[in-house]
């Protein structure tokens, strides 16, 4: 497969953009490629790059494209919104309609504030939690990513893990002091920290997806909820990835756990830039202009993004009885066959899956339940897998520590073609491991 044009664009990009990309994982460095592919078009489950190559897409813009690229209902709504105006700096009716729909789908969210990104949503939610509790410290889990604001980058996941780090430079000692971390799943460590009653909030991905996808223990989630309640700690579910993906009401519906606050993104913009944070009315009413916690943004509630999100969530709501079951069936079909292929070619791999997400960890460990387990993965084997797939016209996340996403647009033909390429990759890995 030819990538000449993408390579030329990347060389130009390196002159004007740090590292040639606007988000680190896009550089494809961890999968041993000199240049990434540059996407130019998407439709359904497919994307095309600047060289004209066609790919089945399992990145799905890192989650929001649950209906695939450019579904007709979203495109029609966006066209209508653009023709009315791209930005006003004033409230619009559609913002209210989207907010109402979000609260209808997520009962724990009584009021919601729209933002322009998931990073802004989590940053703002933490600020509100600090104001509500009059406490400064926050607690997060090692390997969980909540955006790139200072306090939430401590021992983070996603692109940091991809590049071989867990922390970022440029964070002050004061921020580091106020951000506490514990291993995911370690309830005794959480209890030790929270019993001091000086932590404003515990922010967590109920389904971690930024050290690879981790399936949580439901008992653990319930114990976390109980500990937060007993210690007066605000429990924030970061559902930027899991929201509207696992179920209409996200992971909190899937597991029947009610957080105090929730952060959202990805799907609520239907592929367009958006984020949101919400929760109990008594907490959210601390935000200006009602209260004294400041949050603002010229593009918060941007009419184009809001319309795309409204069209997407409306479709999910109207088809909720069958849509999530269909997505899970597609994912299970793929995952079950991947496990069989791993056994056939003696490839050490653990496949974690939930709903329409999955991660193949190339590890000897039978289970991957936390960051330590994830870091045992063989990233060279992952690079073989990624590059074999790419050359066969299938684009996967360019990092061992990310999740694959399935959309409604993926067909049985797409999945079967994908499995043929996975078999090819696993055969190469198996022969390498056996010294052939």
Automatic annotation (TrEMBL):
GO molecular function, a single term: glutamate-1-semialdehyde 2,1-aminomutase activity
One BP annotation, GO: protoporphyrinogen IX biosynthetic process
Localisation: Cytoplasm
Keyword check for Plastid: no
Sites of N6-(pyridoxal phosphate)lysine modification: 266
Any Pfam family: Aminotran_3
Matches recorded under InterPro entries: 4pyrrol_synth_GluAld_NH2Trfase (IPR004639), Aminotrans_3 (IPR005814), Aminotrans_3_PPA_site (IPR049704), PyrdxlP-dep_Trfase (IPR015424), PyrdxlP-dep_Trfase_major (IPR015421), PyrdxlP-dep_Trfase_small (IPR015422)
Keywords: Cytoplasm, Isomerase, Porphyrin biosynthesis, Pyridoxal phosphate
Cofactor: pyridoxal 5'-phosphate
PROSITE patterns referenced in this protein's UniProt entry, alphabetically: AA_TRANSFER_CLASS_3 (PS00600)
KW Cytoplasm (keyword) present: yes
EC number: 5.4.3.8
Catalytic activity field: (S)-4-amino-5-oxopentanoate = 5-aminolevulinate
Metabolic or biological pathway: Porphyrin-containing compound metabolism; protoporphyrin-IX biosynthesis; 5-aminolevulinate from L-glutamyl-tRNA(Glu): step 2/2
GO cellular component: cytoplasm
Self-association state and partner proteins as the record states: Homodimer.
NCBIfam families to which the protein is assigned, alphabetical: hemL, PRK00062.1
Matching HAMAP family: HemL_aminotrans_3
Similarity field: Belongs to the class-III pyridoxal-phosphate-dependent aminotransferase family. HemL subfamily.
Protein name per UniProt: Glutamate-1-semialdehyde 2,1-aminomutase
Top-level taxonomy: Bacteria, Fusobacteriati, Fusobacteriota, Fusobacteriia, Fusobacteriales
